[in-house]
């Protein structure tokens, strides 16, 4: 079985994440795409929405995608989890693992925990973002979506989601605005 792991904060999830999933499903030869929201990214200092809430939103957003699974593996650890830990957790049930990341992460990729082991376990797939360079040796998902979770938290603009879940997310962040700054 071939899988793709798509990790991130998803704080909050938005239409750009949907675009990445759609591009991956149409580009990669995979049986399953597993979205893995982080408890807290080891390279970030804070998170705004709690993990259970982000998992719930992602399950709602992707409920009609049969090849997509939402994993609470990292959130349930109640601590920052390194990507290599998640890869090792899933590798026993798979033949090949594609690891999806944003182009903004490529520059610091070599600084990731146990990077030498990680690069031997996965095939990197990079979603384009802004003007960040994607190395020629990595699979590229061309995404042209000018939305980011940070931008949303600063302006409460549209997330490009179904109205019901979008309204729930906007309400959550507005009610918890002090923790987003």
What is the structure about, briefly put?
The protein is 33% helix and 17% strand. The chain has 181 residues and is an alpha/beta fold. The radius of gyration is 16 Å and the shape is globular.
What report would you give on this structure?
- It is built from 6 helices and 6 strands.
- The protein has 181 residues and is an alpha/beta fold.
- Strands 3-2-1-4-5-6 form a 6-stranded parallel sheet, with helices on both faces.
- Helix 4 links the parallel strand 4 and strand 5.
- Helix 3 runs parallel beside helix 4.
- It starts with a strand and ends in a 6-residue tail after the last helix.
Element layout with pairings:
Layout: E1 2-8, H1 15-27, E2 32-37, H2 51-61, E3 68-70, H3 83-91, E4 96-102, H4 115-121, E5 123-127, E6 139-141, H5 149-155, H6 163-175
Parallel strand pairs: 1-2, 1-4, 2-3, 4-5, 5-6
């Amino acid at each position: 079985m071939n899988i793709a792991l798509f990790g991130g904060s998803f704080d909050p999830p938005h239409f750009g994440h949907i675009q990445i999933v759609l591009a991956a499903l149409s580009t990669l030869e995979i049986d399953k795409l597993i979205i893995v929201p982080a408890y807290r990214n080891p390279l970030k200092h804070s998170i705004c929405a709690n993990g259970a809430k982000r998992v719930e939103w992602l399950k709602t957003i992707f409920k009609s995608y049969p090849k997509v699974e939402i994993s609470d593996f990292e959130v349930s650890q109640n601590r920052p989890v390194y990507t290599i830990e998640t890869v090792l957790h899933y590798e026993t049930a798979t033949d090949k693992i594609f690891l999806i990341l944003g182009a903004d992460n490529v520059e610091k990729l070599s600084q990731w925990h146990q990077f030498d082991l990680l690069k031997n376990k996965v095939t990197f797939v990079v979603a384009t973002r802004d003007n960040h360079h994607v190395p020629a040796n990595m699979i590229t998902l061309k995404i042209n979506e000018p939305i980011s979770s940070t931008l949303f938290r600063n302006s409460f603009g549209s997330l490009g989601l179904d109205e019901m879940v979008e309204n729930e997310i906007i309400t959550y962040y507005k009610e918890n605005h002090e923790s987003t700054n």
